[in-house]
Amino acid sequence: MAEKSLKLTGGLKFNEAGLIPAIVQDTDTKEVLMLGYMNEEALRRTLTSGEAWFYSRSRQELWHKGETSGNRIMVSSVWLDCDSDTVLVIAHPTGPVCHTGNRTCFFQELIEPSTGKSPQEDA
Amino acid sequence: MAEKSLKLTGGLKFNEAGLIPAIVQDTDTKEVLMLGYMNEEALRRTLTSGEAWFYSRSRQELWHKGETSGNRIMVSSVWLDCDSDTVLVIAHPTGPVCHTGNRTCFFQELIEPSTGKSPQEDA
Known about the structure:
The structure is a homodimer.
Chain A: E1 3-5, E2 20-26, E3 32-38, H1 40-49, E4 53-56, E5 61-64, E6 73-80, E7 87-93, E8 108-110, H2 119-122
Parallel strand pairs in A: 2-7
Antiparallel strand pairs in A: 2-3, 4-5, 6-7
């Protein structure tokens, strides 16, 4: 199903701030670890270095993930979605990805407010 | 690791357009299927109906996924990330999620432009 393609220099749709959302998924556990944002330079560095780079929207600067914590994200492959405005980074994290120390940033479950149940429990 | 919490009525950070990105992951295969955007109403409907709703940025309207194609997304659970600005929907798709007919929207691999290799091949 993979259609290998070289789209870095054209075709990618960065948003009005010059960013594209980047989902990070663990190569081994398949867990979704985080969503970050990349500008063109962060994406270029990610593809050429094999480590994930992002653009920090709060600090407004390039962000080499793990620069401070030491928990880097070693990239296996990068995928582009059908409308070219989101990337998926399949990668191996060298430590917890979340700044809270959790393995993934998605550790809080949202439940249905009136019943207090997960959606599947209503089925 | 799960911290069950009820945050729908507060705490979620919708962006300046009133939207929050929503990653959809297959419950069974763990494949990342798509990234959509939800406004508060789409998220509420997703949690209460057990089927994924989004907000279509191009059509500027609520979008019940599968309304036209019949390929719905049956939601198992919804997770919020550490900084409350992204959700992860764990779900079972009843058919191909992508409008191209692919199972996932992420079917195009991005390769390193100068070498034509995936990042891992450089390691």
